[in-house]
Amino acid sequence: MAWFALDDGFDSHPKVRKAGNAAVGLFVRLGVHATKHLTEGHLDGDIVRDYGTAATIRKLITVGMLHEPGHGCPRCPQPAADGYYIHDYLDYNKSRAQIEAAREAARKRQQRGRDTARANRNARDSAANLNANSRQNARSSQSNCDENAPLFEDSAAGQDGLSRRDTHEGATVVPSPPLPSHNYDGADVGGEATGSRPADLDEHLAPTPIEVDGFQLTDSMRRWAHATYPALDVDHSTAQFVSHYRSTGARRKSWPDAWQKWIRDDAKRAAERGTRASSGDVIPFRERQQQANDAMFDRAMARAQARRAAREAQEGAAQ
Fold first, then answer.
1. How many H helices and E strands in the chain?
2. If pLDDT is split at 50, 70 and 90, which confidence band does 199 have?
3. Are the C-beta atoms of 168 and 246 separated by less than 8 Å?
4. How far, rounded to the nearest angstrom, does the alpha carbon of residue 91 sit from its chain's CA centroid?
5. How much is the pLDDT for 313?
6. Cα separation of 215 and 193, whole Å?
7. For 98-121, what is the mean pLDDT?
8. Which of 43, 13, 14, 9 is nearest to 26 (CA)?
9. CA 295, 296, 297, 301: dihedral to nearest 10 degrees?
10. pTM attached to this predicted model
C-alpha cells in the first residue's frame, strides 16, 4: 500500500491558507488518486473535474498547487493535453519504480517468512510423528515380548543333542548390571535366595542375561506365590520362566517383577483351562499348544539331566 505524503507544515503553508479548505480538500483527494494509481503526480482532466468544481480547480492553479498544460514552473514536468500535474509531487512522494520495488521486496520477504514457517511446522510434525511411532513400536515390542511370545520358538522333539535353545551358541547379547527390584502390587519379592534354579542349568554353556543378572527364586517370592495362588506349581512355573528367557536371551529391568507377572499369567491360564474342562468345552488350539509345550519342556529337562549325569559319570570314570 502506498501513501500520499503531506509534511507537518502543510496546514499552515501560505499556499494552503490562501487556497482555502475546499480547494485543499480537492488537492488531497487528487494526491491520493495519483498515489493509488502510480501516476507520479499526473492527473487526467476528467478525474480532476469530477472531483472538484471549476472554482476549486482554478484556486489550486492560481496558488501554484496544481499545474495545467503550458505552466511555467521549472521544477515540474508538463502534463498531457487536457491533464493536470500536482506541484512538486515527486519531492514528497515515491516514484512508481520505487513503490513497485518496495512491493516486490515485501512480497519476497513475506514468502520467505511463509516458507520458513512451513519448514518449521513440517519439522515439528515429523519429529512428533517419529516420537509417536517410536513410542508405539516400543510399547508393541514390549507387549509382544512380555505377553504374546510363545514359550518356545522351535521344537526340541527328536533332537539327539542339545539344541541351540539349550546351548545359546553364538549369543551376542551384551550383559549389563542387574537393576534393583521394587515392590509392586504389594508382593514381597525380597529376602534371601533359596538357590532354586532350573535343574538343567549347565555351567559350561554361554551365559544369558537371566543367568548373568543372577535371578533366583527367594523364600519371600515363594511365600507370595503360595499365598496368592496355592494351586499353582511354583517350581514348574519358575523353571519355565527361566528356560523361556534363556532361550530368548532377553533382559528385563527387574527379574522378580517379570517373574511375578509370569506367575499371574500362569495362574490365569490354569484357571481358564480348569473352567473349560469342567464345563466340557473343547480346549482351543492355543491352549493345546501350550500344554504340548509344557510336556515338551518336561521332556527336554529330563534329557538334559540325563546327559549331564552321563557326562559326570564319564568324567568320574576317567579320573
1. 12, 5
2. very low
3. yes
4. 57
5. 87
6. 9
7. 93
8. 43
9. 110
10. 0.39
Mean pLDDT over 252-281 rounds to 84
pLDDT at 150 over 90: no
Query: Which helix (H) or strand (E) is 193 found in, with range?
Result: strand 193-196
Beta bridge partners of 42: 85
DSSP SS3 for 86 = strand
For residues 43 and 67, is the Cβ–Cβ distance under 8 A? Answer: no
Left if phi > 0, otherwise alpha if psi is -120 to 50, otherwise beta: which for 150? beta
Distance CA 297, CA 150 (A): 12
* CA atoms within 13 Å, Cβ hemisphere of 100: 7
102 SS3 class: helix
Phi, psi for 84 (deg, rounded to 5): -140, 165
54, exposed or middle or buried, with CB in 10 Å at 0-12, 13-18, 19+?
A: exposed
Classify 66 as helix, strand or coil.
strand
Q: Record the cell numbers describing residue 212, joined without a space.
A: 548373568
